[in-house]
């Protein structure tokens, strides 16, 4: 993916005014997966953005592992019958999927389908 596009997204998320706790959480989850996926360092947002093709440094399996961690927290909260925490973890899953969708729509769709299956079962 073009570095300029990646950095524009990271800088946009990094510089958002965070008015609510939920908005903060959404931004943190999305920026975390995008930064990890492309190996974006904190100090890169303060430098001139160079135009080149930036490679993804996380494999699909690495991203799936992180997704499964979110799913485990969601399932744990549902098993404990703590619906407030369950809803919070479910929201984090959707934020994660939105972050992944930025750079891998197919993987994001796969995650979205697994959420649908999870909600039905």
Describe it.
- The chain has 121 residues and is mostly helical.
- It has helices spanning 3-14, 21-38, 60-79, 83-101, 105-120.
- Helix 1 (3-14) packs antiparallel against helix 2 and helix 4 packs antiparallel against helix 5.
- The radius of gyration is 15 Å and the shape is globular.
- The relative contact order is 0.15.
Quick summary:
The protein has 121 residues and is mainly alpha-helical.
- Major sheet description: none
Report the principal-axis shape: globular
How much of the polypeptide forms β-strand, as a percent range?
Answer: under 5%
Q: Span between N and C termini? A: 36 Å
Q: Ranges with pLDDT <50 over ≥5 residues?
A: none
Indicate the structural class.
mainly alpha
Q: What is the helical fraction, as a range of percent?
A: over 70%
Q: Spell the H/E element sequence.
A: HHHHH
Count of helical stretches: 5
List keywords for this structure.
121 residues; mainly alpha; 70% helix; 0% strand
Layout of SSEs?
Layout: H1 3-14, H2 21-38, H3 60-79, H4 83-101, H5 105-120
Helix pairs in contact: 1-2, 2-4, 3-4, 4-5
